[in-house]
Write a structure and sequence with these properties.
7 strands; globular; Rossmann fold; about 40% helix; alpha/beta; about 210 residues; 8 helices; single chain
Amino acid sequence: MKNLIDPKIAEYIHAHTTPEGELFERLRVETYDKLEDPQMQVGRVEGGLLKQLVQVSGAKCILELGTFSGYSSLYMASGLPDDGRLITCDIDTVVTAVARRFFDESPWGHKIEIKLGPALETIEELARAGTELDFVFIDADKENYSAYWEALVPLVRSGGIILADNTLWSGAVLAPQTGSDHGIVDFNQLVQADARVENVLLSVRDGVMFSRKR
């Protein structure tokens, strides 16, 4: 992932953001030391943003698409009330095993449920159960972002929040070439045209599309 922010500005931002804490530091180190594609892990600034958005929104039911090693899951779960629930989806048993170990070690692991399997199947399962979502974080395969959006929006309550990560895609949105590039461009256009939400594209890390359902 190409850094779109000047490194000195990024250092300044980190220096003026609440530290992540020892558990998160260890998870970050293990992710970079032992897992493939460690850059997929969200950064500390984005993690802090997720936590605070969960808190200020009063969310109690969160769905995350793309668990990876669990860093973002832990940040969001730390912002939930004790009776809150976070469902996180992934298809990779290796990375989710790391996530589960850190979830179990944390004070928030009892709030987190890992669903292994295609995310669209989990969304369909939640829809059949009549689940209403307060908060969604999309950070999975980019080609399916638009499909996830269409499946998810009906499940989100009025006033609920949908965040999507990597929506600047290292600048590739300006000259898309690959399937992932076009997936992000199409998704951003879809959200922008969707009258069901109000949205703002934030330049946090690799871009975060922040939408609130009307």
